[in-house]
Amino acid sequence: MLEIEIYHFYSRCIEVDGCTDSTVIADNFSNYFKKIYTCNDQTRADKLKADFYKLRNGYCGLPVPCDLDFDTELVYKAFTKLKRGKAADIFGLSAEHQIFSHILLCQ
Q: Confidence class of residue 50 from pLDDT cuts 50, 70 and 90?
């Protein structure tokens, strides 16, 4: 069933601001957010980045238990249950951010 839904999604023409080329759309999206979220002080931003990497020097993470494995179908099913039009969470993300975040996850 999921393969059929994904096929139907890919068979649709996606247009953003009059453009259908996915590379151009992704570049425009990236450039838009680069312009919006810029630092006030590049020196301070570089210092914070260096401090972050210094704190994480040699970090390799913990093994993930097998019972936490998930796939795109599970994520898709969870996203389809999200209610749209609700307030964003503490990080500013709404259901729409999650639903439309990747082409495979769109309805």
A: very high
